[in-house]
Amino acid sequence: MTDLGAYKDKFSDSGQRILESALNESRRRDQNYVSVEHILHALTDEEADLFNSTMRDLALDPRSVKLKIEQRLESSRQHVGKGFKIAPDTTDLFKRAMERARAQGRKTIEATDIFLALSQDERSLLVEVLSNMGANPDAVVENVRARVRIREQEEEQYKKKFELPPYLKHFGVSLNRLARADKIPPTIGRELEIQQMVEILCHRERANSPMLVGEPGVGKTAVVEGLARLVELEPEKVPARLRGSHIVQLQMGGLVAGTMLRGMFEERIKGIIDEVKEHENLILFIDEAHTIIGAGAALGTSSDAANMFKSSLARGELRIIGATTLTEYKEYIGEDEALARRFRLVKVDEPTIEETKEILFGLRPRLEKNYSVTISDDAINTALEMAPKYIRNLHLPDKAIGWLDTAAVKGEINE
Question: Which domains does the chain possess?
Answer without folding.
Answer: 2-160 (1.10.1780.10), 167-347 (3.40.50.300), 353-414 (1.10.8.60)
